[in-house]
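Q: You know discrete backbone vocabularies at least as well as I do. I have my own habits and do not want them to colour yours. No explanation is needed for now; the record alone will do.
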Amino acid sequence: MTITYDALKKADADRCAELESQLFPGDDPWPARAFHAELAAKHNHYIAARSEGRLVGYAGISRLGRVRPYEYEVHTIGVDPDFQGQGIGRRLLAGMLEFASGGVVFLEVRTDNVPAIKLYESVGFVNIGLRKRYYRASGADAYTMQRLPAGSPS
């Protein structure tokens, strides 16, 4: 099986929404229109993972601010359950971090999402805070995590 990576397209929005409903059923999954809005935003960068042309993963990051040094915020990462555990999420995250090269990157992650937390920690993210009831639909808490640019003082 070969996975290819390219830009997420507006035509992928319905498939993204389908995956969101599988991956985040109790946390207000994004509908297709949310992906359309994200893809239209000037400072967002979205990546797709495809197997035989079918979307199996997606990830998005946004550049914050108008002047350097920029900060970035990971908006989403999702991988089809049938394709998890194959490094696709790690590769998507690497693409977003490459886009954010030289900037501080933030994200929120459910406190009970241990695989995602381990992934983020493995590439230098650290927990900097707790956001109570961040996920409104389920009431789940989230950690805010931060990754400093390479060479930054801790």
In short: Helices lie at 13-23, 32-40, 88-99, 114-122. The chain has a mean pLDDT of 95. Residues 88-99 form the longest helix (12 residues).
